[in-house]
Amino acid sequence: MKKFVIILSMMALLLTTGCAKTETAGGEKTIRIAEQYGIAYAPVQIMKAQGLLEKNCPGIDISWEQMSNTAAIREAMVADRLDAGFMAIPPFLIGWDNGMDWKIATGLSSVPTGLVTKTSISGLAELGEKDRIALPQPGSVQHILLAMACDRDFGNPQKLDNNLLTLSHPDGMNALLSGSDVTAHFTSTPYLEKELSTEGFHQILSGNEAFGDEFSFIVGVTTKKLHDQNPQVYAAFNQSVAEAITFINDHPQEAAIILSEAYELPEAEVLAYLSAADTKYSTTVKGLQTFSDFMLKTGYLKKSYESPEAVVWEHTDYED
Amino acid sequence: MKIKALFLKPYSKYIWIALMLLAWELTAKLALVNPLAFPSLELIFTALIDSIINGDILLQMLFSLGLIVIGLGIGVVLAFLMSFLSVVSPVFASFTDTCVSIFHPLPGIALLPLIILWIGTGSMAILFIIVHSVLWPMILNMTAGFKAIPEVYKKIGQNYEFNTFQSILRIFIPASLSYLLAGLKIGWARGWRAAISAEMIFGASGGIGGIGWYIFNKRVFMDTAGVYAGLLIIIAVGIFVEDFVFGKIEKNTINKWGVA
User: Fold this and answer.
1) Cα dist. A233→A51, A226, B249 in Å?
2) A78 touching B (Cβ < 8 Å)
3) What is the dihedral of CA B91, B92, B96, B102, to 10 degrees?
4) Which of B1, B3, B222 lies closest to A95 in CB terms?
5) Minimal Cα–Cα distance from B138 to chain A, Å?
6) Closest CA in chain B for residue A19
7) A35, A21, A26: which is closest to A69 by C-alpha?
8) Cross-sheet strand order for the sheet of A164-166
9) Which of B49, B96, B151, B200: disulfide with B216, CB 3.0–4.6 Å?
């Protein structure tokens, strides 16, 4: 019997060591931020390139973690490998709904997003069983926007759910343009513009049409741990994002130079994206309530927040 | 105490599984782990039962199984043809060798961008990935099996004046059956991996999708217990096939003949 106890406790040990955490001692000035690429994340790149965090919080130890998608960011935060990240509102709400201890710290950007199809398709109603709609993943902002449009037009938010295809933006663009069975792609800047400038493709639904208003496409999110245990770093994080946003809005040309190096894109192209009418950088969080209400109604969320303080940190601007 | 004897019985697997489940539950309950990363068994089984009653998990499972069985079938036929030709013709053998060394190390998922361009994204593409991951290890096993057949067996076949077809059926297959079965088991496991990873990317392909799509959906909606429920279903089917399908075949063939 003794042997059993030993075997059992060893197995329990084995199972728990997998979850051992890399401790970041409270009070030390460290932050782990998810780094992502794209026009929607431009302020993050500016913040990094100009060393804004280092300036606002001298002695800070920053580690930029490469993350491929929102699900990975959430999982990294659950595993305590990440303190702050940037994502759309729906994936944030899904994490919050499932008990993640995090809140929105700041708005970041609104960029053009929309559903591009072959010109032979002129509206959502014409998307049939054979059509494939590529988008980053179910539960992403693109998916929820599509569900909003389906709900309004057909009274069935899930109408096109079985036509979805999970592809990253570049893969989705290749699949659409190659003329395979992917006939539609819900995407954003700069892939949206590239597809629309290709002959034979047009946009049948824009993000704002689906949503019914303007909304924050990307927001900045931090864990409760960072907010509570490291207020100095948290404040510096918010200040740096705000400064980066102001910099882009005030000096788009200089920002374009920095970004064109980071993204390996021509400067003029980046500047065109930054100054497009639908591209806005702002620390104000917009559209939270609408997303939450819709996702609760359609069952993507199990609960709703009673006051916005449950999902945004204090001093964060938001409007609905 | 005859504890040791318990573990030498055929059902020892289930004792280990029970112990692992117990360790799991103890960890989830006693250790300070985040339920989002490490849900307790109740949560997992609740999610599983909920998916069975309210969801399509069983149909999705059948869908994946169907694809894997078809993929395995195509893989077995192709592998058999290529291995047999290799044994008969040294020229073809060098061709097969080259193919194996080129394609065997290539993960199907690495071919994805190409597959999307060539075949598109439907069930055909998933099938292609399954066949790709099943075929090459199976060829390796089959050629090894055919090469290991003692010369004297083949001579017996010549004595009986078997034609090629008869000698395949009555000499080659029975004499190398333990290799073929081992190949089939590897192919089965590889087929699963390929199907799940392809489904996670290709989505529902117009229908309800397979078990990979189920798991992926649970992941993106942060239903960790649901992810584990999906894994449990895969494990259950895997054990069932291992014990009842392969076990039966082995018992009635190689074990009975005494070749294993």
Assistant:
1) 14, 8, 64
2) yes
3) 60
4) B222
5) 30
6) B33
7) A35
8) A164-166, A132-135, A182-188, A113-118, A201-206
9) B200
What residue spans of B107-246 are helical by DSSP H? 112-118, 123-147, 151-159, 164-167, 173-175, 177-202, 211-220, 224-240
- Give the span between the Cα atoms of A187 and A164, in whole angstroms: 13
The region that residue A58 occupies, defined by phi over 0 for left and psi between -120 and 50 for alpha, beta otherwise, is beta
State yes or no: pLDDT of A23 exceeds 50.
no
Alpha-carbon distance A306 to A295, whole Å? 15
Please give the C-alpha separations between residue A163 and each of A105, A302, B201, B209, in angstroms, as whole numbers: 34, 24, 13, 10
Render pLDDT for A98-147 as a digit per residue (tens, 0 to 9): 889 999 999 999 999 999 999 999 889 998 888 889 998 889 999 999 99
- Of chain B, the end-to-end C-alpha distance in Å amounts to 33
Residues for chain A: how many in total? 320
More confident residue, A72 or A3: A72
| Residues of chain A with C-beta less than 8 angstroms from the C-beta of B113 | 171, 174
Q: Which parts of B33-56 fold into alpha helices (H)?
A: 41-54
Smallest CA-to-CA distance from A159 within A168, A167, A172, A150 is with A150
Residues in chain B: 260
Of B23, B120, B204, nearest to A181 by CB-CB distance is B120
The model carries a pTM of: 0.81
For the segment A234-255, the average pLDDT, to the nearest whole number, is 94
The CA–CA distances, whole Å, from A136 to A97, A166, A187, A206, B205 equal: 21, 5, 8, 16, 15
What chain B residue is nearest to A97 in terms of C-alpha separation?
B222
Give kind and range of the element (H or E) at residue A252. helix A252-263
Q: Tokens 């935060």 — which residue?
A: A77
- The values of phi and psi at residue B203, to 5°, are 75, -150
